[in-house]
């Protein structure tokens, strides 16, 4: 009886060894196939999210859009103050560049209020640049009392930048539905 048990154990061990030796893992997909599958999954997920989005209704202004417009207005006021307080040899150039930036901010604000996609993209670009400029200013800060203000500046700009993505998608969907309705 004990011999039979030993024989079975030896046979089972031999079968396992043979199975391991004969096992061929499935061929690994090439890099392009894996990438194509990844893109397909991502596009499927994006399509699902786009379908769930509600387009903006006429006259609807999300709170994040109002906050972004107000923040852009504060940035415009800051550039005007900077232009007024400019002094030294390059004061004229500073005033001119700040005047152009203020004009850009005002155009972005007005047309963002009108829900123009290009203006919303411009507002988002202004927010991104404000965030980067704030981070660069943090690197060269010389007055410690400005530190919390710069962190607040970077935080607000970054938060509004990322929250504007959904607003952009909703505006784009509303424009797409309007075009399809007219066609």
Structure description:
- This protein is an all-alpha fold.
- The chain has a domain of 122 residues.
- Helices cover 81% and strands 0% of the residues.
- The chain has 6 helices and no strands.
- α3 crosses α6 and α4 packs across α5.
- The longest helix is centred in the last third of the chain and has 36 residues.
- It starts with a helix and ends with a helix.
- The mean pLDDT is 86.
- This is DUF4233 domain-containing protein.
- Keywords: Membrane, Transmembrane, Transmembrane helix.
- It comes from Patulibacter brassicae.
Set out the fold topology.
Elements: H1 2-22, H2 31-52, H3 63-85, H4 91-113, H5 117-139, H6 147-182
Helix pairs in contact: 3-4, 3-5, 3-6, 4-5, 5-6
Protein traits:
mainly alpha, 6 helices, 81% helix
């Amino acid at each position: 009886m004990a011999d039979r048990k030993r024989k079975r154990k030896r046979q089972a061990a031999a079968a396992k060894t043979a199975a391991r030796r004969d096992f061929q893992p499935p061929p690994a997909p090439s890099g392009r196939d894996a990438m194509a599958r990844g893109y397909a999954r991502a596009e499927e997920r994006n399509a699902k999210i786009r379908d769930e989005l509600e387009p903006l209704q006429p006259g609807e202004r999300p709170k994040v859009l109002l906050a972004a417009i107000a923040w852009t207005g504060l940035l415009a006021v800051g550039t005007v103050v900077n232009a007024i307080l400019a002094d030294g040899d390059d004061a004229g150039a500073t005033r001119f560049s700040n005047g152009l930036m203020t004009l850009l901010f005002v155009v972005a604000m007005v047309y963002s209020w009108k829900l123009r996609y290009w203006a919303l993209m411009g507002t988002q670009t202004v927010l991104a640049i404000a965030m980067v400029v704030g981070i660069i200013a943090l690197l060269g800060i010389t007055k410690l009392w400005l530190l919390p203000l710069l962190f607040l500046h970077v935080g607000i700009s970054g938060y509004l930048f990322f929250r504007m993505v959904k607003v952009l998608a909703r505006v784009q969907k509303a424009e797409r539905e309007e075009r399809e309705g007219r066609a």
